[in-house]
Design brief:
By secondary structure, the chain is of the alpha/beta class. About 30% of the residues lie in helices and about 25% in strands. The protein has one domain (about 40-245): Vaccinia Virus protein VP39 (Rossmann fold, 3-Layer(aba) Sandwich). The chain has helices at about 5, 45-50, 75-80, 95, 120-125, 150-160, 175-185, 210-215, 230-245; strands at about 15, 20-25, 30-35, 65, 85-90, 110-115, 130-135, 160-170, 190-195, 200-210. The strands form two sheets. The chain has a seven-stranded mixed beta sheet with strand order 6-5-4-7-8-10-9, with helices on both faces. Helix 6 runs parallel beside helix 7.
């Protein structure tokens, strides 16, 4: 357990429960995470399903890093349906980690770990190179400055394997939203894709090493043989949106033309 002085530096979230869901909140106005009580592995919020769009580019990642635990929706989904992946989750708020059992986050094991730490420190010195890095690190005040600087996104790039993928959840209403998208683009030499979530006001930004995004433009939306049928059906609509955005001749993503920025 963290000491009292350390814990007091972080806002304590609360759980709002209905007959069918449990939700994690810092304030009643915004949902950080939501779980269906009878289907704890399901991805209940649209943007989380869009973040799983990385499966279109790599459906067998060996190593996944996650910055931000929240209610553990993405962590649980990847743990349950990508059983060969090693998953490292970094969360800075001890009060959030303390709720992991409430949201059925699996216990630590040889291939799954939730660690207390700073996401910016994690990408500067990752335990190993990552195939996929998912960044959804919001606190009570929004996205921390340390998780959206140019240096942070550059470190994210360097933490990845040569064909690795960065997946970032951004709020489009943030005053520096366009700046954050541009920073990701600079880190990945313009090889980015931006997919809007109309319902929640989020954008999911994909950045890649190599040519993974470009090669996927002609891919078909087919379930990998190793992937659970019901879980794939749950993702299908969101994956189709990602693929549709990828195929557009123009889009919000500044890397749409696959050119290197100066």
């Amino acid at each position: 357990m963290p000491d009292t002085a350390d814990a007091e530096q972080h806002v304590k979230p609360f759980v709002y429960e209905t007959l069918t869901t449990k939700a994690l909140h810092f304030s009643i106005c915004e949902i950080q995470s939501r779980m269906q009580s009878l289907k704890p592995l399901a991805l209940d919020l649209d943007y989380t399903r869009t973040m799983m769009g990385f499966l279109l580019f790599n459906d067998r990642p060996d190593t996944i890093g996650m910055i931000g635990l929240g209610g553990g929706s993405l962590a649980k989904f990847c743990h349950g349906y990508l059983p060969k992946a090693r998953i490292d989750v970094v969360e800075i708020n001890p009060h959030v980690i303390a709720l992991r059992d409430t949201f059925h986050v699996p216990p630590d094991s040889s291939r799954f770990k939730v660690r207390r730490g700073d996401g910016a420190d994690f990408v500067r010195s990752p335990p190993h190179r990552l195939d996929v890095l998912m960044v959804d690190g919001y606190d009570a005040d929004g996205i921390p400055p340390a998780l959206c600087s140019q240096a942070f996104y550059d470190d994210c790039r360097d933490a990845l394997q040569p064909e690795g993928l960065l997946v970032v959840n951004l709020h489009r209403g943030h005053c520096d939203y366009a700046l954050h998208v541009d920073r990701i683009s600079r880190a990945f030499d313009g090889r980015t894709l931006v997919v809007r979530d109309v319902d929640c006001g989020n954008s999911i930004v994909f950045g890649c090493h190599g040519r993974r995004l470009e090669r996927a433009r002609t891919a078909q939306l087919r379930r990998p043989r190793h992937f659970d049928v019901a879980a794939w059906e749950e993702l299908a609509a969101s994956l189709a949106e990602v693929l549709g955005e990828l195929r557009k001749p123009t889009a919000e993503g500044v890397g749409r033309e696959w050119r290197t920025r100066r």
